[in-house]
Amino acid sequence: MVLEIFIMWDRPIAEHYCLNPTAKIVEEEYYKFLVKMREILNTLLKEYSRKYLSERPEEDLIRKYGNKPLTKLIDEYNWLKTRPWLNRLTKLAEQQPLSPSK
Q: What whole-number distance in Å separates Cα of residue 14 and Cα of residue 22?
């Protein structure tokens, strides 16, 4: 899989974007997903460039997040965003920080 071109998806991610990963013509759904991801990435790059006065927002973001391609970063964001159990666990941890053991 070439991560610089394709963005991974699974059922929870597809459903998060109101797509049907079990459609008869799944290629059409995946194409819609890629178009949506392109829109999100373009918006992200424009906003980053505006906020941080960056002429090269893609390069800046790649360098900032461990030299991962933007497609990999959005893949990781999607995975984390669509895992309700992880989101609940994170909120719980924020509410009750671990205290050092005695």
A: 10
